[in-house]
Design goal:
Elements (H helix, E strand, L loop, with lengths): L2 H13 L7 E5 L12 E5 L4 H13 L3 E4 L6 E2 L8 E4 L10 E5 L2 E5 L4 H10 L2 E2 L11 H7 L2 E2 L2 E2 L4 E8 L5 E5 L16 E9 L1 E2 L2 H18 L19 H7 L6 E2 L2 E3 L7 E2 L8 H19 L8 E2 L1
Parallel strand pairs: 2-5, 3-5, 4-18
Antiparallel strand pairs: 1-2, 6-7, 7-13, 8-14, 9-10, 11-12, 11-13, 15-16, 16-17
Helix pairs in contact: 3-5
The chain binds NADPH dihydro-nicotinamide-adenine-dinucleotide phosphate (NDP) and uridine-diphosphate-2(N-acetylglucosaminyl) butyric acid (EPU).
Length: 310
């Protein structure tokens, strides 16, 4: 799809009656924290359930598939102006970032809220227990979709239900979740579900003490995060005992680079874009493939990336 074709796509979307300020064409590198992807993408940013349903229906009516993007902290864009889908990204400045107490230690938190700020807002309401997750970038929707984890805690331990919309037909859905349905970086979210909020079950906490834990975790995280643009760990740890970083370091890949991207000298399971300038998604993929190949050759182990490639 050329730029002209994407412009025609924007016109078709506007013609369906969608509010024009929810329709945009953006460079991929500006939509993901790693700044990877030189192509452009058409993005819809609905602010409420009605606009989300309208957006899905507009995409169906013009025959284009949809994909969902959150904060872009675990995503690699595309170099192509021809992504397979229109991106839906829930607006951060509307209904999808709300936090509502439901009673009995339960809170409904909008999927567009960022995980760290949401945990701080909940702490101020006297609810917590998940301060270990507060340094993680990314949104509540993304955290639910991939079961974000850090410091021995998984987001899924707090989630009792996911609410959302079936992207195939626009119907509202509520998905109750059992603790045993979650595992390391695995969520029970079906791929058709656009998560619009989650219901969390939290412990009562002293707000000041919980905020102190959150600040301490943010400071720890800042100290260990390699400098430059990044997207967290590249690969899943093969087992709890086998760390991908250790395997990549001992395979000799630290410092390997391609284009804007390099395997961090500080932590081998991070790829960083030191320049913070837009970089080629293909370069990033090539570097990842080279690391996987070397680890396979040295350790006879297949690494699997936790990033989402568009
Ligand atoms: N532990 C850590 O230190 C780090 C953890 N992370 C985690 O990575 C995740 C990334 O979050 P975020 O940046 O917002 O996500 P992204 O924008 O990077 O999107 C990644 C994928 O998450 C899914 N997703 C995002 N939002 C929604 C939603 N509302 N409904 C359904 N699926 C959704 C989509 O999966 P699909 O393609 O399957 O539809 C999407 O492709 C979070 O869990 C974040 O906490 C990120 C960096 C570091
Ligand atoms: C950053 C992410 O999550 C992180 C999460 O923040 C942290 C903290 O709990 O624990 C995981 O990292 P990790 O397993 O790399 O944790 P670290 O403590 O940094 O490293 C584990 C071990 O590997 C060793 N290590 C790490 C990097 C390196 O270059 N060399 C090396 O030997 C460390 O010395 C340590 O003994 C999560 N990553 C995965 C893939 O599970 C993410 O998912 O994006």
């Amino acid at each position: 799809m050329t730029a002209a074709t994407q412009t025609a796509l924007l016109d078709s979307l506007a013609a369906t009656g969608l509010p024009v300020d929810t329709i945009a064409r953006r460079r991929w590198a500006d939509c993901c924290s790693l700044k990877a992807g030189l192509g452009h993408v058409v993005i819809l940013t609905p602010r409420n359930a009605t606009e989300l349903t309208q957006s899905l229906s507009a995409c169906r009516s013009i025959g284009v598939a949809t994909a969902i993007l959150g904060a872009g902290s675990n995503a690699v864009g595309s170099d192509d102006d021809d992504p397979a889908a229109i991106i839906i990204r829930l607006a951060k400045n509307g209904h999808f970032a709300d936090i509502a107490p439901l009673g009995d230690g339960r809170y409904r938190v909008g999927a567009a809220a960022l995980l760290g700020p949401a945990l701080a807002a909940l702490a101020r309401l006297g609810a917590g227990g998940f301060a270990g997750l507060s340094g993680i970038p990314g949104g509540i929707g993304g955290a639910a979709a991939m079961n974000a984890g850090a410091n021995g805690q998984d987001f899924g331990q707090a989630v009792v239900a996911m609410e959302g919309i079936d992207r195939r037909d626009g119907t509202p859905q509520v998905l109750p979740c059992r603790p045993d349905e979650w595992s390391y970086r695995h969520s029970p979210r079906p791929d058709w579900l656009i998560v619009t909020s989650v219901t969390l079950s939290l412990q009562p906490v002293n707000p000041a003490a919980e905020i102190a834990l959150i600040h301490a975790e943010r400071q720890r995280r800042q100290r260990v995060t390699p400098p430059g643009a990044s997207a967290g760990s590249v690969f899943l740890n093969p087992t709890p005992e086998l760390s991908a970083g250790k395997l990549i370091e001992s395979a000799g890949c630290k410092g390997w680079s391609r284009g804007a991207f390099a395997v961090s000298e500080q932590h081998a399971n991070w790829i960083v874009n030191a320049s913070r300038q837009p970089g080629s998604a293909q370069d990033c993929q090539t570097l990842i493939d080279a690391v996987k190949k070397k680890v396979q050759a040295v350790h006879d182990l297949d690494l699997h990336t936790e990033w989402r490639f568009f």
